[in-house]
Amino acid sequence: MTATGTFTPRPGAAPLGRMIRAQAALETRMLLRNGEQLLLTVVIPTLLLVLFSSVDIIDTGDGKAVDFLTPGVLALAVMSTAFTGQAIATGFERRYGVLKRLGASPLPRWALMTAKTCSVLVTEVLQVALLTVIAFALGWSPHGNPLAVVALLLLGTAAFSGLGLLMAGTLKAEATLAAANLVFLLLLVGGGVIVPLEKFPGAVQSLLGLLPISALSGGLRDVLRDGAGMPWADLGILAAWAVLGLGAAGRFFRWE
């Protein structure tokens, strides 16, 4: 029996849902406060959309350039957050022992990965909202099924998250930084984001079409520009990358 005005300590972990929400909120604030990550996830896609929609530099085929570019830039935004940004941030957290300490906390390791995924999704919602407003201001005229767009974005996020975590959990932080930025630049050029895949030779087109960025940008373009139905082929490619990436990350990710 305790005296009036005193409290009995109740040590123990907070409910799991509360821990995940708190960690996700922390991850999101850290990402948005990071100038380099903000440049990668927000500024670069926005500049690419405005520049190539306003200046006739690249032949994007029939129709308005913004109608071709917006789906590709949305795909680029997903890749920049779920793959490049997450790989770099997680790689350095692993190097500095942050993941090791968090792994010893009451927050389970799978819950930490869930919180990181939630942070990625929150950031992507902000990116998509901003890019959509800018695209409308530039004269964008989208079509198609919104459910198909959501399915593509979610599977694209899963695919790139798996690949980003795999890279961050197996390479040194400096190697992750270099590799993630290099992959970002290569896929920007060869993933159908800015340059149509039809501009590449036939054999190269077939290989590039199997990349997750090509499936995501191509699927979004088919739906938003051409008004196509559910792009099952592109969804299948993204699902395969998601299974391979997340499975390999779960198997080979090293916390120290």
Automatic annotation (TrEMBL):
Keywords: Antibiotic resistance, Cell membrane, Membrane, Transmembrane, Transmembrane helix, Transport. This is Transport permease protein. Belongs to the ABC-2 integral membrane protein family. The chain crosses the membrane at residues 38-58, 70-92, 118-141, 147-168, 175-197, 232-253. Its main location: membrane. The keyword Secreted does not apply. It comes from Streptomyces luteosporeus. It is a multi-pass membrane protein.
